[in-house]
Amino acid sequence: MWLDERALFSAAVTHPYCGHLGFAGISGVLYSEGKYEQALDYANRSFAQRPNAVNVARQAGCLVRLGRHADAIIPLEILVRNRIDEANNLPRLGRCYLEVGRTNDARTLVAQHPELGFYPEFGPLRSPR
User: Is 121 helix (H, G, I), strand (E, B) or coil?
Assistant: First the structure.
């Protein structure tokens, strides 16, 4: 099945109106295969043609998986600000803040979204009642 998807997306890349979809599709296939650096490259190509939340989410996911937490913060902040997939992106953003030493930003995020306090790494950041 993946072979068919890869062929389909590769054909879409060459179409003048669908290139961004082809790049995004190839990025998704590579991401699911754990090839995050390559997936990021295709997500960036898709974003260059058509900036949208799907591409930003893929970029953020790849950057987090690659351990590039500082680079993942801006895409994650964009996603959170636009309330896109908050269940996944809020904890990711908080973890990135902690990984790069931005504890005050993580604390602010937990204060704004108390549900994050139930994650073990964020519990100590909760304000006492």
Answer: coil
DSSP code of residue 87: H
Residue 127 DSSP label: P
- Per-residue pLDDT band for 1 (boundaries 50, 70, 90) equals very low
The secondary structure element, H or E, covering residue 20 is helix 19-32
25 in Cβ contact with 3 (< 8 Å):
no
Instruction: Please state the separation of Cα 65 from the chain's center in Å.
Output: 9
Give the DSSP H or E segment for 13.
helix 2-13
Cβ contacts of 46 within 8 Å, gap of 6 or more: 19, 20, 21, 23, 24, 27, 55, 58
Q: Is 35 left (phi over 0), alpha (psi -120 to 50) or beta?
A: beta
Total-model pTM:
0.81
pLDDT digits (tens, 9 = 90+) for 7-65: 555 555 555 555 577 788 888 989 999 999 999 999 998 888 888 898 899 999 999 99
CA distance 59 to 42: 9
